[in-house]
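Let us work through a complete example step by step.
Step 1: write down the sequence.
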Amino acid sequence: MTDVMSDLTRERDGYVPLSYERLPYLMGLMTGDEKHGPAATSTLDALWVLYDRVLRVSPDSAEDPDRDRFLLSKGHGPMAYYAVLAAKGFFPVEWLPGFGGYDSPLGHHPDRQLVPGAEIGSGSLGHGLPLAVGTALGLRAQGLTGPAVWVLIGDAELDEGSNHEAIAYAGPAGLDRLHVVVLDNGSASYPRDGGIAARFEAAGWSTRTVDGRDHGALYAAYTAPHPGRPHAVVARVEPKEA
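Step 2: predict the structure and record it as tokens.
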């Protein structure tokens, strides 16, 4: 790990963030969950652009009430999430090789009590989007209009009815601080006329569909204006192999 650690400068009890080019190395430090490897690698670019260019949250502001909230619903493959959090200094890179170990805070599903920067425990399909709707409602009730709420879900999670209830509620409620990233790797069991974006549009959401590996396209979609409406970005990546 010396090649990475030599690039890390300690500042108090944190680290200087690493670059995107280091992420494959950080991912390679985590082994033992190959079953969900594609679930992790499909999210890497979408997560990086969010944390590097969009989200207003850092290790120093992780408890700030005015921070942006990011909820990983696709928590059954958290290796990319852990790599990005480590690269951004939320916890030490030295934690990564222990991934999945008995005494490691980095479990096969993230635990918000153990992982610095994690807003929710996740991994069960269909939970993240309803939780994000509740988070956006809670912030609105507190008069906190600055924080944005982001949630990343997999396309297969749209097989779960809980997500459709959340989509149907959020649009008419005008939750314009709510943002959903749908990673589309062709895993959904039930195709939809017009594609994934059409389901959100029918409930009054703003949508964009982009190449999930194109950082420029992701950033443009993430930052597209959507006054008065929640926003969904469908990020298409290579199909999951059977």
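Step 3: interpret the result. The chain has a mean pLDDT of 89.
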